[in-house]
Specification:
- By secondary structure, the protein is mainly beta.
- It has one helix at residues 2-12, and strands spanning 20-23, 26-29, 40-48, 51-58, 62-69, 75-80, 85-86, 89-90, 92-99, 102-111, 116-124, 135-141, 150-155, 161-170, 175-184, 189-198, 204-216, 222-232, 237-238.
- The chain contains one helix and 19 strands.
- The strands form six sheets. Strands 3-4-5-6 form a four-stranded antiparallel beta sheet, with helices on one face. The chain has a four-stranded antiparallel beta sheet with strand order 9-10-11-12, with no helix packed on it. The protein has a four-stranded antiparallel beta sheet with strand order 13-14-15-16, with no helix packed on it.
- The longest helix has 11 residues, at 2-12.
């Protein structure tokens, strides 16, 4: 896997020709040019079935899936990622993941009337064709659109599972909500948990939070590091 990432890292920088260079125990295979007109590779997705998959970005939000031959490093296809509609709402692209050789596009949508923030997975064939059936992953209750929060993603070390967390703020209730789920390679839920943490607004002003790290170990235990900051009203100092 490390060799694959090194190979495609060279592709991003546009090194050319079907040549092969050896540096000590490392072997570099140079593929064909990727022009600026086609955008740039922003993420290496992985390798499966003799093909290497990469996420390509053109402009601000035009994503496509590039597929390369894993041996010759030849570009086989480029498929534009078009997010489908769910309940008359177009999904917002979140990311592409590969789990045990299976590729999924993850997209989110906010529902104003229900005040829910949803996440779905879309299976992708080895040729880059999205499936018609969508897999609902999250349907989380939030306060409103501006406080809907974000989704955070972390794959397991064996790349056969993915942990996803949704974190959002409920200002009226002075509360943070965290929902964490672990999915297998078919995007079936392995476990799910949620927690609500009350913020003491009487002594905390200008409360802020950020997710510093989100990790899964070999035993598929999930660890989350959360940074919180505020100004203490009584002590008149920033914490």
């Amino acid at each position: 896997m490390k060799k694959v990432f090194l190979i495609l890292g060279i592709l991003v920088f546009g090194l050319t020709s079907q040549a092969q260079t050896k540096l000590e125990d490392l072997s570099f295979v140079y593929g064909e040019d990727i022009t600026d007109e086609s955008g740039k590779i922003v993420e290496m997705i992985g390798e499966a079935n003799g093909k290497i998959y990469a996420l390509n970005l053109k402009g601000k939000d035009e994503y496509s899936l590039k597929i390369f031959d894993a041996v010759k490093m030849k570009l086989l296809s480029t498929s534009l990622i078009t997010m489908p509609e769910v309940d008359d709402r177009e999904l917002e692209f979140e990311r592409v993941v590969m789990l045990d050789g299976k590729i999924y596009i993850l997209g989110s949508a906010y529902y104003r009337r229900a005040k829910t923030f949803s996440l779905v997975g879309i299976p992708i064939s080895d040729k880059g064709v999205p499936a018609k059936d969508l897999i609902k992953l999250f349907d989380t209750q939030v306060e409103n659109k501006s406080n809907r929060g974000d989704f955070y993603f972390k794959e397991s070390p064996d790349e056969k599972a993915i942990g996803i967390m949704q974190a959002s703020m409920f200002e009226k209730e002075d509360m943070m909500q965290y929902e964490v789920k672990l999915f297998d390679s078919s995007l079936k839920t392995i476990f799910s948990t949620s927690e609500k943490v009350v913020v003491d607004e009487d002594n905390k002003k200008d409360y802020e939070f950020s997710i510093s790290d989100f990790d899964i170990n070999m035993s598929r235990d999930v660890s989350i590091v959360i940074n919180e900051g505020w100004r203490d009203r009584k002590k008149k100092e920033k914490i």
